[in-house]
Amino acid sequence: MAPSPVALLIVDVVNPFDFDGAEQLLPRARSAAGPLAGLAQRARDEGVPVVYANDNFSDWTEGFEALVERCVRPGAPGRDVVQALRPRPGDYVVLKPMPSAFFQSPLETLLGRLGVETLVVAGFATDICVLATAIDAAMRGLRLVLPQDASAAETEAAHRAALVHVRRVLHAETPPAAAVAFGVPA
User: Are 7 and 142 in contact (CB under 8 A)?
Assistant: First the structure.
């Protein structure tokens, strides 16, 4: 585990898209998948830890790999999104039971061991789990970056409102994913 002052946290992208509101979220998630996949690959290339924090969708018996496989099976609604964003070897995975990736998960311990001071947060949904995670990250004194095009919500209005909130209240930066500067020496 190499220390890094910056980490990329990807929230709830391994998703079956089978819940109320998924039909509204999925097209926006597809739009965010490209910028987010590019951001994740750039993080890996620059030696920045990529951490997935994912809901277990209340299935306490299914492991993360089984969830991934269920979400990429033929006919799964968001198969293309999950396929583009699934974790790669060397990425970290944290299962979370609640909207915030910090609540009752090992995320805080992992980020502490990595020496993270700046957290780049992206994923689904901007106004729910991404926002809850950002609030908890700010309460822990982490500097926040939420790439505006690497997250999605059920509506564009909800997405924009969450970004306004994190800028105004949490003092987060919200650049496009392509403009995120990890600033980690290679």
Answer: no
